[in-house]
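Internal tracking record. Fields below are filled automatically when a chain is submitted to the structure queue. Please do not edit lines marked as system-generated. If the sequence contains nonstandard residues, flag them in the REMARKS field before resubmitting.
Queue: standard
Priority: normal
Entity type: single polypeptide chain
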Amino acid sequence: MTERIEYGSKDAADAARDRHSEHLCTDDDRRLKTVAWAENGTPEWVLEQERLEAADSRDDGGDDGGQVALSDTERDGIDFSKKRANVPHARAVKGIAQSEGVEDWTSYYDPTLTVDEHRDVMEQASRESGKRSADETTDEKAARAARSAQSNQCDHARGHCENGDPEACEFLTQTCGYDEEEVAQFIDESQPEQSEQQDLVTVGGDEYPEMEVTPEVAGALRDSWTGYKAGMGQLDDALTEAREAVINSRQAWRAINRIREAHDQEPMHPDRLHTLLDALDAMPESIPEVRTLDHFAAAPADEGQPGDDPDDAGQWSTEQQGTLGVDTDAEESIEEQVTLTGDADAGNEVAPEAWRRKGTTWTGGPHKIALDSQQRGSWYVKLTGPAGPRDLASDLPDPTVAEEVAVEITERVQPNEVTGHNADARLQEAVAEAKSEALPDDGGLMEYA
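SYSTEM-GENERATED OUTPUT FOLLOWS
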């Protein structure tokens, strides 16, 4: 709300308006002794200064000095661990001391006494020091208290000025009697402390180039590495748990379909499972690629970034081609690039080290593994590539089993290990192991698993 301060005279109010005209409220009336200060934008130190100026000019005052702000020195000299000692208590006692004319009030401050009990203490201290005049009026005491408090505000403004507050520096010159050279010296004295923070430290080493950075940057780098390693640990654990969940879900769904078939019902497809797997598969594309400074230094700015040119559309990093359950370390092969466009020269493409899955299709360079159903109740796992189409597994009972066989194959043989020829012993071995894993013949309850 708008701050309104009443001054002792019209001249004192107008002087305040002239000192800080930029902070006056739009509804301030120069005909009044009460000045209206803007609600927004008026610094607190300006309001505190004007409250003191108003107290110095008003005719009405009291013996109660109210609460007066504490200086940093006064705060340091008070033991706030003692009984009753707190900031409001000390501010109230200081107000009483100033109204009694006691400047060294901390010497008489007693945390065991109440605020009212300090009135007698400060009155006695004033008589002992001889600073209280017998004929001093209430207004004179209030004015002297305001001037003493203003001295504390000057100390407060000096701290703000040293930290670069231009309005605080202006307050020092206009109100506190400092000249511009003294204010400039305050600012210069604060600069060495800031320059000390610019001392450089060396980070890096071993496989990482060394860098000269500020301590603040070094701390940020350390925290970033800590966050990255923690994230990698969480991701590794999550992938392990997700792979186990997928295997368990497939086995449970296969049992569901076996039970349905035993009761003359059509097998069902695990739509929800595939929706979640598709979401995992699409995740690498939704994550911005992390580039290093070396990457940007290697290419001129006018050449653009990879992927800006249509010819770059088929380039994918190894991280983007990895799928759930493939035991590859993306960081070890992050710089490998492969082409997946499937153009006329597909037979000459370099196959990646990981399959890229979309639904029930796995793509790896020129090779593709997919599910197929040529007749009701019979499913196939088919391989297509430069050597032509080929059935890897046939006569599978349902799509769930066919999918599990395909998954087991892609986990045992990588795209760069596939030749596509019938004599490919590595592929044949992977198919046999996949079928054995997906179609166990253990009897009993496993009949439905």
